[in-house]
Design brief:
The chain has a single domain (14-432), classed as MFS general substrate transporter like domains (Growth Hormone, Chain: A, Up-down Bundle). By secondary structure, it is mostly helical. α6 (137-166) packs antiparallel against α7 (173-179), α6 packs antiparallel against α14 (284-311) and α12 (245-270) runs parallel beside α18. The protein contains 20 helices and no strands. The radius of gyration is 21 Å and the shape is globular. One of its GO terms (molecular function) is transmembrane transporter activity. It is found in: Membrane. It comes from Cupriavidus agavae.
């Protein structure tokens, strides 16, 4: 017995929910491992005697690693499959996080966090590709957006857990802070056991029997390859298509908007206590302010996830860049205001940038066909981290030479560039199937 229901239109089942947990756990860990350096930076810099240059290098090292890992992970995920690469990132997190405990120099921390960044870079293409290739179209946008929420949840957890460890008073507390992601990594490796390969990827490699078996296992005995009609219609395109025609334009859009949405955010997370102190927030204001702003990032992403299928991708991106950019401009103008005003403006930025944050995985996974989807996501992640790494490295230098007001103006400028790109290039993919969203003919 068979049916005619496309797997793009089935309701969510237990497998979908479990896959969301498996992929979502990776994003919790990504947010935690990338943000935990901000918690440990002040005590580790004092213990190891790091200059402003090396503080910036250590903070930016993971972003440089993402540049390498995103590109490499995207290519390998397309060639070797999603399943094999699903365990690489968590394994790197466990080993390198533990190794940070014994670091004795800025160079050693730079190397370990560079490798951690490679692991994060692997996560972007593999976790997103698995989700988008299994999820029904109705849930694709919200569930991909959910990954960004979980990233900020991981970041918030890093500040809460990290500050708690620092307050223990142990002389090696900052080392425990940097080693702590290993615990989450071990749990993530365990829950990912048993994840199947993507049927769409198997079909793109001509492995139809394996694809059919997985479809029946995931969706039920009445489903088969006939319930995946759009796969046969997808054009066989190579990675070179990213460099010309419509896919080159899409790659440009994804890379620039992704860069403009992450540069200020990563700069804030790497030096949150330092930035807040420059804005006249000291003591508990700075410590709890970091947690509060992170939670507002989570709230902003939750609101954006609720609205993504209501107002559409394009409109959300435009409004997100517009209002968050204005909030950063106001922060620059009011840099010497009261702590409460600073927190309100920072909170406004955190809320409004949520729309751009959740679209970082939605757009690139929808705009490219199966054969180059993971490579496109990996390349977008890589290119976006070049600017993020440079911006993060420049933050302590900018604070020392230009001051906090000019630093906030620069962040606002980056955000408003994202607005301009969104106005010119952002497409609308709401309610489209994967084939329709990735098609160059629409």
């Amino acid at each position: 017995m068979t049916n005619n229901v496309s797997i793009e239109d089935v309701p969510l089942n237990r497998f979908h929910q479990l896959l969301c947990i498996r992929s979502g756990g990776g994003w919790v860990l990504d947010g935690y491992v990338l943000s935990i350096i901000g918690v440990a930076m002040v005590p580790l810099a004092a213990t190891l005697g790091l200059s402003g240059f090396w503080q910036g290098m250590v903070a930016a090292s993971a972003l440089l690693g993402i540049f390498c890992g995103g590109f490499l992970g995207g290519l390998l995920t397309g060639r070797l499959g999603r399943k094999k690469l699903y365990f690489v990132g968590p394994a790197i997190f466990v080993v390198c996080s533990l190794a940070q405990y014994w670091a004795t120099s800025g160079e050693a921390l730079f190397f370990m966090r560079f490798l951690i960044g490679i692991g994060v870079g692997f996560e972007y293409p593999v976790a997103g590709a698995l989700l988008v290739e299994f999820l029904p179209r109705k849930y694709r946008g919200p569930r991909l957006a959910m990954l960004t929420i979980l990233w900020f949840a991981g970041a918030a957890l890093a500040y809460v857990a990290g500050n708690a460890m620092l307050e223990s008073g142990r002389p090696d507390a900052w080392r425990l802070v940097l080693a702590s992601p290993a615990v989450i990594g071990v749990v993530l490796l365990a829950i990912r056991l048993g994840t199947p390969e993507s049927p769409r990827w198997l079909l793109s490699k001509g492995r139809t029997a394996e694809a059919e078996a997985i479809i029946r296992d995931v969706y039920g005995a009445t489903f088969s390859l006939r319930n995946l009609p759009e796969q046969a219609a997808e054009a066989k395109v190579s990675l070179l298509c990213l460099l010309h025609s419509g896919y080159g334009k899409r790659m440009l859009f994804v890379s620039v908007f992704w860069s403009c949405s992450v540069i200020p955010v990563f700069a804030v997370y790497a030096f949150a206590p330092t930035v807040l102190q420059a804005l006249n927030l000291h003591g508990d204001w700075a410590s709890y302010g970091s947690v509060a702003i992170t939670l507002l990032f989570v709230v902003g992403c939750i609101v954006a996830t609720r609205l993504i299928n209501v107002i559409g991708r394009r409109s959300m991106l435009i409004h997100s860049f517009l209002w968050s950019g204005l909030a950063l401009l106001a922060l620059g103008a009011c840099s010497d205001s009261s702590p409460m005003m600073v927190l309100l403006l920072f909170g406004a930025y955190a809320l409004f940038i949520g729309g751009a944050q959740v679209l970082q995985l939605v757009y690139p996974n929808e705009l490219f066909p199966t054969e180059i989807r993971s490579a496109a996501v990996g390349l977008g992640a890589s290119l976006s981290r070049i600017g993020a790494a440079i911006g993060t490295w420049l933050v302590p230098i900018s604070l020392q030479t230009l001051g906090i007001a000019q630093t906030m103006y620069a962040a606002a400028g980056v955000t408003l560039v994202g607005l301009l790109v969104a106005l010119i290039l952002a497409p609308e993919t709401r309610s489209l199937s994967l084939q329709e969203a990735a098609s160059l003919s629409r």
